[in-house]
Amino acid sequence: MTILAHRGARLDTSCPLCRSELETPEHLFRSCEVIQHIWRSLSLGIQSMANPTVSFIRWLADHISYLHRSSSTGFSYLLYFFCILRSIWLTRNSIVFEDNKLEPERILHLAEALHLSHSRLPSLRLDDV
Fold first, then answer.
1. What is the pTM of this model?
2. Which of 53, 59, 70, 123 has the most CB within a 10 Å radius?
3. Rounded to whole angstroms, how far apart are CA atoms 121 and 1?
4. Which DSSP symbol is given to 123?
């Protein structure tokens, strides 16, 4: 949204989840108070704001690497991490474009459904990719 606003579009650039900060990828996926609560509620070991000076891209790369190495279930954890990110984005879009209300538990339910549907695909080893 901030990119479109910089190009002259008249848009609300506040975060659609918390309505208190400017919406940026860093805020939406990491520092938004709603999203911080989501990350803390999971058992993935994701600390969204452990080092707030790290860029979003570095944070993302570090967690991908961490989850890949974490255990024999690393791929499942990595898949779930991506499902959380995707469900945050889908929830954000449903609020912005469909005027839906924020339901934080919807993010978790959607992530679980995405994870379950992708877990049924033939298994891949990360070394094969």
1. 0.80
2. 59
3. 34
4. P
